[in-house]
């Protein structure tokens, strides 16, 4: 089955009771048993729920995995992955990392004795310098947020396999439409499904997909034992969102290209971060591991003026100033005062998060309206 068919049919079957085309929302916590243990595969909804199971089959299918797992948020999904570790274990992670992941790693799991190394992975071979006997997990995010760095998943997977270490990829920005990390050698793929997979800014959810059966069993155990699952209503909404992922992503990419090109030609713009430009340092890797370049773009204005950047995001009318990304509507963000405000100026500037950096999540509106909006906002 091709990807565009899988978004609609992957792992799905028509409802056995009445033939409903969409999976029913099984809004139930428990299931009748005819005799103790005599059930139809479902006993309690933390462990299993038929609506959630339909979604879990869907993400497994989209990522070319054998197993999918759904959680109450992206961070709950990451939390489940880190629970595979024990005190003393070490993790090598991307340094330009989603802020919530960084907080989870440093403010919670570091206290449980897990050690994290945050390194620049634009040259993936550098990862190997940090591998030792305690290393159990490599955590990669690509493209990164908000600098749009690209990390070579295949090269990271080769290092992980050589040293018998797990490789997990946060695939939130790319989605399986653009990039399929399990096929490139990753062991675990993670999504904040809140973003592109849901696509309508109406659900918070996390998803994992894996190929390996034994690893899946360990993660299912954690999912049930820790209990950070999502409900059937949200599972239904996520499945509904996923059905249009391929059409939405195609338009996100088209609009992203137009907006990035417009910004790149604008006299007031200093630099545009978008992996589709040939001048992007890892453009060739992006081209090799991604089908297209997505709708996430960051840019800085000439003179790098904080107040000017704030004015620009305030002036936008079609773009909404908001946290999050990946919805049908275009959003803007100012990392220095929003997502990265808690990081000291000196620290954030080291990774490129300067005062005038603006991040765009380009939606699927008419590109002409988006460009007009940027024109009037930038002035
Ligand atoms: C939003 C996000 C997360 C966290 O997901 P939530 O659903 O907000 O918990 C993790 N990684 C990336 C790249 C994200 O954008």
UniProtKB/TrEMBL annotation:
<comment type="similarity">
    <text>Belongs to the trans-sulfuration enzymes family.</text>
</comment>
<dbReference type="InterPro" id="IPR000277">
    <property type="entry name" value="Cys/Met-Metab_PyrdxlP-dep_enz"/>
</dbReference>
<dbReference type="GO" id="GO:0005737">
    <property type="term" value="C:cytoplasm"/>
</dbReference>
<dbReference type="GO" id="GO:0030170">
    <property type="term" value="F:pyridoxal phosphate binding"/>
</dbReference>
<dbReference type="GO" id="GO:0003962">
    <property type="term" value="F:cystathionine gamma-synthase activity"/>
</dbReference>
<dbReference type="InterPro" id="IPR015422">
    <property type="entry name" value="PyrdxlP-dep_Trfase_small"/>
</dbReference>
<dbReference type="InterPro" id="IPR015421">
    <property type="entry name" value="PyrdxlP-dep_Trfase_major"/>
</dbReference>
<protein>
    <submittedName>
        <fullName>Cystathionine beta-lyase</fullName>
    </submittedName>
</protein>
<feature type="modified residue" description="N6-(pyridoxal phosphate)lysine">
    <location>
        <position position="195"/>
    </location>
</feature>
<dbReference type="InterPro" id="IPR015424">
    <property type="entry name" value="PyrdxlP-dep_Trfase"/>
</dbReference>
<dbReference type="InterPro" id="IPR054542">
    <property type="entry name" value="Cys_met_metab_PP"/>
</dbReference>
<keyword id="KW-0663">Pyridoxal phosphate</keyword>
<dbReference type="GO" id="GO:0019343">
    <property type="term" value="P:cysteine biosynthetic process via cystathionine"/>
</dbReference>
<dbReference type="GO" id="GO:0004123">
    <property type="term" value="F:cystathionine gamma-lyase activity"/>
</dbReference>
<keyword id="KW-0456">Lyase</keyword>
<dbReference type="GO" id="GO:0019346">
    <property type="term" value="P:transsulfuration"/>
</dbReference>
<dbReference type="Pfam" id="PF01053">
    <property type="entry name" value="Cys_Met_Meta_PP"/>
</dbReference>
């Amino acid at each position: 089955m091709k990807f565009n068919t899988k978004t609609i049919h992957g792992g799905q079957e028509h409802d056995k009771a009445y033939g409903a085309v969409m999976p029913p929302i099984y809004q139930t916590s428990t299931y009748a048993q005819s005799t103790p243990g005599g059930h139809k595969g479902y006993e309690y909804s933390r462990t299993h729920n038929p609506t959630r199971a339909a979604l879990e089959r869907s993400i497994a299918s989209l990522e070319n995995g054998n197993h999918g797992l759904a959680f109450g948020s992206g961070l709950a999904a990451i939390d489940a992955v880190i629970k595979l570790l024990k005190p003393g274990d070490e993790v090598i992670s991307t340094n330009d990392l989603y802020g919530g992941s960084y907080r989870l790693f440093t403010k919670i799991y570091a206290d449980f004795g897990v050690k994290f190394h945050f390194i620049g992975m634009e040259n993936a071979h550098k990862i190997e310098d940090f591998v030792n006997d305690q290393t159990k997990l490599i955590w990669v995010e690509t493209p990164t947020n908000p600098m749009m760095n690209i990390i070579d998943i295949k090269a990271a997977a080769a290092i992980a396999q050589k040293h018998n270490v797990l490789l997990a990829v946060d695939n939130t920005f790319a989605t399986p439409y653009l990039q399929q990390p399990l096929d490139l050698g990753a062991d675990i793929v993670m999504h904040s499904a809140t973003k592109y997979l849901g696509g309508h800014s109406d659900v918070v959810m996390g998803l994992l997909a894996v190929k390996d059966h034994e690893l899946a069993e360990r993660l299912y155990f954690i999912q049930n034992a820790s209990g950070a699952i999502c409900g059937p209503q949200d599972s239904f909404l996520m499945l509904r969102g996923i059905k249009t992922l391929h059409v939405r992503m195609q338009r996100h990419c088209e609009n992203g290209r137009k907006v990035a090109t417009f910004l790149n030609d604008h006299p007031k713009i200093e630099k545009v971060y978008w992996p589709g430009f040939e001048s992007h340092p890892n453009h060739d890797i992006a081209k090799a591991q991604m089908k297209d370049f997505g709708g996430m773009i960051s840019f800085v204005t000439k003179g790098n003026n904080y107040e000017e950047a704030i004015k620009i995001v305030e002036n936008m009318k079609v773009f909404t100033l908001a946290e999050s990304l990946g919805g049908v509507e275009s959003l803007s963000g100012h990392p220095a005062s929003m997502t990265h405000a808690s990081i000291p100026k000196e620290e954030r500037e080291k990774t490129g998060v300067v005062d005038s950096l603006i991040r765009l999540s380009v939606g699927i509106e008419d590109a002409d309206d988006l460009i007009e909006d940027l024109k009037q906002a930038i002035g």
